[in-house]
Design a protein that fits this description.
MOSC_domain, M1 Pyruvate Kinase, Domain 3, about 180 residues, 7-stranded mixed beta barrel, alpha+beta, 3-stranded antiparallel β-sheet, pyridoxal phosphate binding, about 15% helix
Length: about 180
């Protein structure tokens, strides 16, 4: 399917609309739905702001992934952020999540496959979690464009169990690659 790029550090889900997600021993992904038992699982949008705009939109944010290396970088800047704190379902190591194109496939563990749909758009709740953190996760490029660093979103193409320690395999889509934008 592709090359093993990294590993799963932590997994989590939350049944309610809480900001953080508790770490678990494992989660189950369900094709076309998301993380079983997670408040954001569903065929159509589940995020409150998106539901308010149009509840019939397809859910392109079934799974939220972040990279452990970002938490280490944030620690150097004086922020304490651990897996699950920012609401992600899967924390990885060794995968350049933000550098992936739209349509990249991530095999997580033996069976689960997530198709990358775009970037998480960080919200003001991040500063409620830790003041000043939002500025670390959204920056301006030299051309003035926004650089979003709060992880990526995806949809589940094949279901399966995911546990910490599982491998992450990346398969890129055919070129030309489309860079990630917020979803």
């Amino acid at each position: 399917m592709g090359r093993v790029a990294g590993s799963v550090v932590a997994v989590g889900r939350s049944e309610g609309h809480s900001f953080s997600k508790p770490n678990l021993d494992g989660i189950r992904l369900v094709a076309g739905i998301g993380v079983e038992g997670d408040t954001h699982a569903g065929v159509t949008v589940q995020h409150r702001s998106r539901v308010a705009q149009d509840p019939t939109q397809p859910n392109l944010r079934q799974v939220h992934l972040m990279h452990q290396e970002l938490f280490e970088e944030l620690a150097e800047a004086g922020f304490a952020v651990a897996p699950g704190d920012l609401g992600e379902n899967v924390t990885t190591r060794g995968v350049d999540l933000l550098g992936l194109p739209v349509g990249a496939l991530l095999r997580l563990g033996e069976d689960a496959v997530v198709e990358v749909t775009g970037l998480r758009n960080p919200c003001a709740q991040i500063d409620d979690f830790q003041r000043g953190l939002l500025k670390q996760l959204v920056r301006r490029a030299e051309d003035g464009s926004l650089i979003r660093r709060a992880g990526i979103m995806g949809v589940v193409r094949s279901g399966g169990e995911i546990r910490p320690g599982d491998g992450v395999t990346v398969t890129l889509p055919p070129e030309p690659h489309r860079p990630l934008d917020r979803v």
